[in-house]
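so my prof wants the structure for this chain in the tokens format not the other one, which i didnt know existed until like an hour ago. anyway here's the sequence
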Amino acid sequence: MTANAKQLFDRRSRRVRTKLRQVGGGRPRVSVFRSNKHIYVQVIDDKDGRTLAAASSMAKEVREKVKSGGSIDAATAVGALLAERALSAGLKEVIFDRGGYIYHGRVKALAEAAREGGLNF
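here's what i got, hopefully its the right format
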């Protein structure tokens, strides 16, 4: 039986998340969702099942800066916005969950901008 793209993506997501639980040490998880038009990211406390901070390319601050929500520029702006919101919520140490996406392009730009903004992962 061959797996389709969705099944392979889900398998990669589970594998990444399982590894993060092993090495995470109870730190909040920065979860990324990427669509063709936008990028969304949130800091999740898995112990309590709560979202502690979130940002997306649909946020007013980001829409004013970038032309398209599906670009590397938008991902960079979202990463900076997330870092700002997470630091104001008292979060500095997090762990990055790329999901089933490869660490490249928009996902990488978002992560690097969040690091430059002050998040440690």
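also thought this was worth mentioning. The chain has a mean pLDDT of 95.
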